[in-house]
Every structure is written in C-alpha cells, then in structure tokens.
Amino acid sequence: MEMPSETDASGTNKSGQALGRKGADTRRRLLDSARELLNRGVKLTAAAISREAGVSAPTFYLYFENIPDIQLSLSDEAGEDMAEILGILELPWLPSTVSLRSEQLVRAFYAHWDRNRPILSTRNHQSDLGNSDFNHSRRRAAMPIINALSQRICEAQGSSRVSDRDALARSVIVYAAMERLAARGSARTLQPGDLSDEELIRAEAHVLALLFRTAPEHATD
C-alpha cells in the first residue's frame, strides 16, 4: 500500500488511496504509454496501455476509470504545454517587431500542435461532440492565450477604437482560426492553388500583424 506521506500532485488513485512515489510513477508510465500508442496510431485499450507500460491490465483501473479518463488527463497535460506561446505574447511588441512576433506566435502554435496532435485532435473532436469534460479541458487551455491576444489588441488599437469586449471577441476569432489551421496536420482541405504550408503560415502571420499593429492615432513616438 502506498504511504500517504509520499503523496504528490497526482492525488489519489481510484480506490481513494493517496498516491506515493511508486503509485505516481506507475500512473506516469500509463500516461506516457497511452501517449506513445496514440502517436503510433494504435487504438487505445486498457490492455494495450497496460502492456505498453509493463503492468498488469487490472492495474490500469487503479488509476483511470476508462479510456476517456486517461485521454482527458493527457488532454489536460497537452493544454499546459503553452509556455512558448504565452512567452511570445508577453514579449515587447514594438512597431518594428510586430511582424516578427506575429510569425513567431504562429510558428509556436503550429509547434504546439505538432507535439500534441493526436490527443489535441481527440480533445477537440470530443468537445465538438458536446463532451463537457473535454470542452472544459479545451477552454482551460485556450483562455490564457485568448486573454493575452485580447490584451495585445487593446494595447495596439487603443480604447477609443476597440472596447474590451470587442477585443475579446476578435481574439476568440483569431484563436479559432489559428487552431483550425494548425489542426489540419496532413489533411490538406481548403488549400486552393497548391499553397504551401509556409505560404499559409506567412499569410496568417501577416493577418495577425494587422490586428496587433499600433493604430496611427494611438502610436507613440
């Protein structure tokens, strides 16, 4: 039995026992194994995950209720992988660097999706189907970025040109567009004229720069 004194951020298992170091390590191996199987395109089952993790199949149910439960944990972890994106939004966006920062932002968002594509695709699909748990996970990941985008828009345009609510609405649209384009992966839908990914990234960055560029009457010397 795990000793309560060894508890960590993982909390308790499904039997209500506090997770010690060994339990936390087992749970971590199950999560890593599920992620690896997803990356290889293998259908997730408790047996497959347990086998990949090197534990018995019943062990899976000590830590997760079912497959959606472990998918949700992976979704939450992927949603926390936003430090690079937030870091770019927190940098100084001077008039001379707006285009550069916009491109850095787009590329960081694409990189986030490239690192986490299988689980993010699962999360968004379940969210679109109306699964409230996955919808909340998606929202928790999105809102820090959306709020940071909104702040950038307000700073660039000025309160006389855009209200806080309008800036927030625009940031929601920006985030949704960025997410949709990054989520395409190898699916090349709505890409007329044989446009390359690089051309689309540059175009997306240009559109963002128009929003984030300081309005003439709001510019400072």
The low-pLDDT segments are 1-9
Q: Termini distance?
A: 66 Å
CATH architecture of the largest domain: Orthogonal Bundle
- H/E series: HHHHHHHHH
Mean pLDDT score, rounded? 88
Percent of residues in beta strands: under 5%
Task: Summarize the main sheet.
Answer: none
Spatial shape: elongated
Class per helix and strand makeup: mainly alpha
What Rg do the Cα atoms give? 21 Å
Individual helix count: 9
What is the CATH topology assignment of the largest domain? Tetracycline Repressor, domain 2
Number of DSSP strands?
A: 0
Describe this structure in words.
- Helix 1 (21-39) crosses helix 2 (46-53), helix 4 runs parallel beside helix 7 (132-157) and helix 6 (98-128) packs across helix 8 (164-183).
- It is elongated and about 65 Å long.
- The protein contains 9 helices and no strands.
- The chain has 221 residues and is mainly α.
- The longest helix has 31 residues, at 98-128.
- The termini are far apart.
- Residues 1-25 are annotated as: Disordered.
- Residues 45-64 bind DNA.
